Amino acid sequence: MKKVFKVKDLDCAHCAGLIEDAVKKISGVEAASLNFMMMNLSVEAEEAEFPRIQKEIKKAAKKIEPDCTIVF
Predict the structure, then answer these.
(1) What sign for the dihedral angle of Cα 15, 4, 37, 67?
(2) Are 60 and 26 in contact (CB under 8 A)?
(3) CB within 8 Å of 58: residues ≥ 6 apart
(4) 0.85 cut: is pTM over it?
(5) What is the DSSP string of 26-38?
(6) How far is CA 16 from the centre of its chain?
(7) Which of 17, 40, 42, 13 is nearest to 30 (CA)?
């Protein structure tokens, strides 16, 4: 299943790329794409895995860009 999340307070495209790479490495994520211009994060994974994956996405994003917020 594919879900799209809004990204807030992301300051640069480089950080967007780092967050995208980190999300792709999360166990259970089949595909991920962060569009810096649209401020959207698309994630493909099994429906049952999303609660755990969302927590890991939030943790990874905060580690790379402390001001960044992913709206789930």
Answers:
(1) negative
(2) yes
(3) 70, 72
(4) yes
(5) STTEEEEEEETTT
(6) 9
(7) 42
Residues 6-46: tens digit of each pLDDT: 999 999 999 999 999 999 999 999 999 999 999 999 999 99
Instruction: Give the integer Cα–Cα distance in Å for 40 and 57.
Output: 13
Which token pair is 23?
């999300």
53 is written with which tokens?
């994956």
Q: How far apart are the C-alpha atoms of 5 and 23, rounded to whole Å?
A: 12
Strand partners, 42: 4, 33
The pLDDT assigned to 67 comes to 94
If residue 42 lies in a helix (H) or strand (E), which one and from where to where?
strand 40-45
